[in-house]
Amino acid sequence: MDKDFPKFRYHPDPIGTGAFKKADKPQICECCGQKTGYVYESPFYSTEDVECLCPWCIADGSAAKKFDGEFQDAYSCEKIDDVSKLDELIHRTPGYFGWQQEVWLAHCNDYCAFVGYVGMAELENMGLSDKLEDIYRKDEAMFDIGDIRECMTNGGSMQGYLFRCLHCGKYQLYADCD
Q1: Digitized pLDDT (tens) for each residue of the chain, 178 residues in all
Q2: d(Cα 62, Cα 138) in Å, to the nearest integer?
Q3: Which family does the entry's similarity section mention (predicted)?
């Protein structure tokens, strides 16, 4: 429990995005059996009903291996050439919640880092609203730019998911709705 919080290449701020929450009191990780002050709150696809995973068991892949699970559906990840990166993403990276099926975006032949949940207000605060035509991945979603500008709100019926390329730094936006 005193270890440094692990780093996740494709999900650099999993506490900020809500993938992990700080527990009110230490919990027992079902994978390693150790006490943890952080509990995983995002999707884990397994036939077993797992209630508590610590960040360390996710980072080292032991949770995915022990419970034969994935943190992201491999079929909902954009295609890249390096299968080891797909393995890191689905077996050792915290996922995120989407309204529909989560899609993990890629750019520069690598998976992007999940930045967080956004609406137009967040994009405006980041100075990205005027770049919407450039960052919105319409090829992966079904809405036109007008719908995004008018309806996308963080926590609303149309939700944005912001990613950033690890290589060139370009933002990528995916959206879905309830």
Answers
A1: 457 999 999 999 999 999 999 999 999 999 999 999 999 999 999 999 999 999 999 999 999 999 999 999 999 999 999 999 999 999 999 999 999 889 999 999 999 999 999 999 999 999 999 999 899 987 776 788 999 999 999 999 999 999 999 999 999 999 999 8
A2: 35
A3: Belongs to the UPF0167 family.
Whether the full predicted model's pTM is greater than 0.85, yes or no, is yes
Residue 92 lies in a domain: no
Buried b (16+ CB within 10 A) or exposed e, 58-87: bbeebbbebbebbbbeeeebbeeeeeebbe
Rounded Cα distance between 116 and 101, Å, is 16
130 shares its domain with 165? yes
- Report the number of distinct structural domains present in the chain: 2
- The SS3 of residue 149 is helix
Query: Is residue 144 assigned to a domain?
Result: yes
